Predict the 3D structure of the following.
Amino acid sequence: MTKQFHDHTLSTDALDQLFNEARSYNDWLAKDVSDEHIRQIHALLKMAPTSANMQPGRFVWVKGDEAKSKLVDCVSDGNKDKVKAAPVTVIIGYDIDFHEHLPELFPHTDAKSWFEGDEDGRIEGAKRNSALQGAYLMLAARAIGLDCGPMSGVDLDAVTKEFFADHPRVKADWICSIGYGDPESIFDRSPRPEFGKFNQIV
């Protein structure tokens, strides 16, 4: 029997929402992001692939005034107002000991043993795959109609100390505000390279 091919290409509108028209916002409209929104985002991002389903990303969704004030103290001056105004800013961290969860997350083989005794290798894998999860998080947020403002101007040691104190094997890596972006807060899109500039097909 010949297998039938199904074209699953997203609509132009969907591609625009996720990529072509999506922007990184610097200010936010006074509109709430609910806990249900946050759970929707996580429900989507967790389905995307990580190596051996390691799922090393650890996320703190900063919404409350006290937590937001603590985070503002950890970011650069240029990012303070962005965090203050955002309905939610999520801290993307990574768990160095993600392998302890592999018996549950990757149960069909002894994947935990692949990473035991190799902390440097675990850190490398955790950072790479948690960064992937952060990218999935942004796409998930955009997919449900929200906007994003990723930031790296952060004192990561301070964020780790403040928000992951109870989890000493988790380290903060970057942050991303989420909400309904204010169109007046963005400038013209920066140039994007043509395919031939940074790509090869061999």
Summary: The chain has a mean pLDDT of 97. The beta strands are 57-62, 88-95, 147-151, 170-179. The first helix runs from residue 12 to 20. The two ends are 34 Å apart (CA to CA).
